[in-house]
Every structure is written in C-alpha cells, then in structure tokens.
Write a structure and sequence with these properties.
The chain is of the alpha/beta class. The chain has one domain: Spore Coat Polysaccharide Biosynthesis Protein SpsA, Chain A, CATH 3.90.550.10. The chain is built from nine helices and ten strands. Helix 1 packs parallel to helix 2.
C-alpha cells in the first residue's frame, strides 16, 4: 500500500474483476493536466489480474487496497476513510474524464466560498456511440439521481460525516446527496460534460426497480404531491418497458435501438 499525500482533490476508483476498465480509468486520472490529485484505488479482491494493473501504475497511485468488500458502496466508504483531499470524486472502473483538462477546468469554481459541491453533465458510452446526459437543476433532486455521481465533486468533510448507507444497495449515492446537500445555494452546476461513463455499468441495470427506490427514499424527506407522483408513474412505466426490451433483445440490438431513438448522440 502506498501512503496518501495531501492534495486538493481526491479521486477514488472502486473495481472488482474489471482489469480492462480499471486500466482505462487509471490512465484517464493520471493524464489530468495542470492539477495535482490524490488518487486512491479500492479493489474488491479481484482475481483477473487487476492487482498487476494497480502495481503497474503504482507510482501514480497514492493509496490502494485489494481485499474483499461488501459491495461498491462499502468500497467507496473505504476510499472516503483514506482520502485526505478537500474534495472527493468517485470515478468507477471503466469510466473516464472527458479529457485531460476536465478537472483543471473547474478547479477555480471549487475555490468559491459557500460551495459544498459542484456537478456537471456526462456521456454514456455504448461502445460504438455515446449519449449525452444533461444534468437537471438541483431543485429537481426529488426526481432521483439527477446527475451521474461520477460528475460530482463534493467536500470531503461532508462525505466523511455521512458516508454511503449500505442498506441502500442501489441508491446509496442518492441517499447521501439528500443527506449532505440540502441547500441548493451551496451546490453549483457547471454546464459542461465532465465524464464518460460505461453504459453497461451496474447502475444501468434494472432501472425501473431503481426508480422505485428513488421514490421511496425521496418521499421520506420531500413533499410528494400528485404531479410528482404522476411523474414517477410515467417514468416507471417507461423504464419497465425498457428493462423488458433489454431482457428480450440481444445486447447489440438493444444498443442499435437506443441509437435510433436518441437524438442527442455524439459519435
């Protein structure tokens, strides 16, 4: 294990048996220009050669751990415990920053007083094409995860105070945001894409059931009038159909369908 060094931003990558995706993510992180980051890799005890990848880039990794865990959010909590930066970002294995200047492009915004978090847009990578996902205004957080957590940088002190609640195996990131970020004035949106996310990652599976969890969690802390309930009903039906199509169609054909029906594609 390497010892962490002081840094303004800590990037945490969690991975399990994703050697190829892990290396892609590591290369993206260490390619960031004009900024120094503390990089932490939490591996869940992979058996596919991921440890060799971690050691290959050992000089660029401040701290790494390779041991069994209780799932991705448990691994992310380990990363929080090891982080020494003022800000934390989670970039999963397989995900990458949009470019080498992604972090340096927003570092000035992090220096503004009164800001607890900043988030941006993202792209979903389907292999042959990418889909642009524009984040919603923070006031719409009652709808669920309105941005990719990979496109979020939040104060480390808030992460360390709350941590991810592992009783939510699919939406612990959403739960954490509801707990930590209650004042929209202290949250800043930057209208640029920060990351490219693997469209086949765990968070993209079973979207209808995840939406149901969003609703259950949101109504614990926010008012759910008829219009909001109707929104969830419409979205649930839509995502249920999508999940059903995913089960029926081969993966390749499903991605072709997405490409035909999405208008905001980036080749």
């Amino acid at each position: 294990m390497h010892h962490p060094a002081e840094s303004r931003i800590t990037i945490v990558t969690v991975s399990l048996n994703n050697r190829t995706g892990l290396e892609k993510t590591i290369r993206s992180v260490i390619s960031q220009r004009k900024i120094s980051v503390e990089y932490i890799v939490i591996d869940g005890g992979s058996e596919d050669g991921s440890l060799e990848i971690i050691k290959k880039y050992g000089l660029n990794i401040a701290t790494w751990v390779s041991e069994p865990d209780q799932g991705p959010y448990d691994a992310m909590n380990k990363g929080i415990g090891l982080a020494t930066g003022e800000w934390i970002n989670f970039l999963n294995a397989g995900d990458v920053f949009l470019g080498p200047d992604s972090l340096s492009g927003i570092i000035q915004q992090l220096r503004h007083d009164g800001i607890d978090a900043i988030y941006g847009d993202s792209l979903a990578d389907y292999g042959d094409f990418k889909v642009y996902h524009k984040a919603r205004p923070f006031e719409e957080r009652w709808k669920g995860m309105i941005f990719s957590h990979q496109a979020l940088l939040m104060r480390a002190s808030l992460f360390k105070e709350e941590r991810f609640d592992t009783k939510y195996p699919k939406i612990a990131d959403y739960d954490l945001i509801l707990c930590c970020l209650r004042d929209p004035v202290r949250v800043r949106y930057t209208p640029v894409p920060l990351v490219i996310c693997d469209a086949y990652g765990i968070s993209n599976k079973g979207q209808a059931s995840i939406l149901r969890e969003y609703y259950r969690r949101a109504k614990q802390s926010q008012r759910m009038d008829f219009s909001r309930k109707f929104y969830f009903l419409k979205m649930f039906v839509f995502l249920y159909v999508i999940d059903l199509v995913k089960m029926i169609l081969p993966e390749r054909l499903f991605t072709v369908m997405i490409r035909l029906f999405r208008k905001n594609l980036i080749s």
